[in-house]
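Lay summary. Proteins are chains of building blocks that fold into shapes, and those shapes determine what they do. In this project we predict the shape from the chain. Here is one chain we studied, written as its sequence of building blocks.
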Amino acid sequence: MFYFYSEGKKLRLPIKQIIYAEILNHDLYITTNGWGTVHSRMTLAAFLEKMPDNFIRIHHSYVINTDYLMGVGYRECTVAGNVVLPVARGMQKTVEKYFM
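And here is the predicted shape, written in a compact code that computers can read:
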């Protein structure tokens, strides 16, 4: 379980349902399988510290759960829900490794 605060409430979320997390304007948005998107004031680095090894940072603004990795292209990847996310140049080989 992942415990976090969102809009003044302490919430828990099954880690296996997290598809990816995005930082936008210093706010963390966590997209899930079945819960929609939830918001927190956590940093992406703090979020990643609490996640297991199958979560990787693919870009300055994104962390993905590799269990939901559906496809890899040049400097982008596709996760569940057909969502295309950017991949940093330095992370391309890492993302490809998890895809294989």
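What the prediction tells us: The longest helix spans residues 92-99.
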